[in-house]
Specification:
Distance between the termini: 92 Å
Structural class: mainly beta
Strand content: 35-45%
Order of helices and strands: HEEEEEEEEEEE
Strand order of the largest sheet: 3-4-5-8-9-10-11-6-7
Mean pLDDT: 81
Number of helices: 1
Oligomer: single chain
Radius of gyration: 23 Å
Largest sheet: 9 strands, antiparallel
């Protein structure tokens, strides 16, 4: 027997193990709706832990938009996916399909006072926001179901669908952004921007000062 064979086999085995460890890992992937999907279970060896202080940032971090008028406050909690060189409207976000309006867990609206949005009264409390984008028009969907994953949409739970004003942003917006901008008096403008699209709708806080 070749006296170099055991050493050769040992070297090849060590190379295979190193290659397997390099290919394994727990990287996040984005679905067609901006969701950060959990990796499938694997029998392969896990990737080495990253050094402390160098953990990978989430692809779609959570953020909040919030505003206060008198004794009323509004907060929106949502995930913020990024373009990363992709076509967003009509691509990653298909036209004519209900969109979670963010990423991962459903986008949540919390208000301490009733809101009037497009002629519909939205009672104080917690609601979920979806949108229905098309090439030239958007609808804001206010849904009564809460606590669900963003893709778990139940149309039977819709409280209202409200038309939004749609336009173009002055410059591309890399990361999806929701803002609550002052609209004068008791009005807040709910503004969504991403890529080259800006969609907005006014929200009026009602019953301010009521017990």
């Amino acid at each position: 027997m070749n006296r170099f064979a055991p050493a050769l086999r040992t070297g090849l085995l060590m190379m295979a193990v190193a290659s397997l460890a390099a290919c394994s890992g727990s990287g996040e992937t984005e679905t067609a709706e901006g969701e950060t999907a959990a990796p499938a279970p694997s029998a392969e060896a896990p990737a080495p832990a990253q050094p402390q202080g160098q953990q990978q940032a989430p692809a779609s971090p959570r953020d909040t938009a919030q505003a206060t008028i008198a004794d009323g406050s509004v907060l929106i909690d949502y995930g913020r996916p990024s373009m990363r060189g992709r076509t967003i409207m009509g691509g990653l976000v298909p036209y004519g399909q209900v969109w979670r309006t963010g990423a991962n867990a459903a986008t949540t609206l919390v208000t301490t006072r009733d809101l009037r949005i497009g002629g519909t009264t939205v009672p104080a409390g917690t609601h979920t926001l979806y949108t229905l984008p098309t090439e030239n028009a958007w609808q804001l969907i206010i849904n009564k179901q809460t606590g669900q994953w963003g893709t778990e949409y139940d149309q039977a739970q819709d409280l209202a669908r409200v038309p939004m004003q749609v336009g173009r942003t002055p410059a591309p917006v890399e990361q999806f952004t929701i803002a609550l901008e002052p609209g004068g008096g008791n009005v807040l403008n709910l503004v969504m921007t991403w890529e080259n699209t800006r969609a907005s709708v006014p929200m009026e806080l009602v019953n301010l000062g009521a017990q």
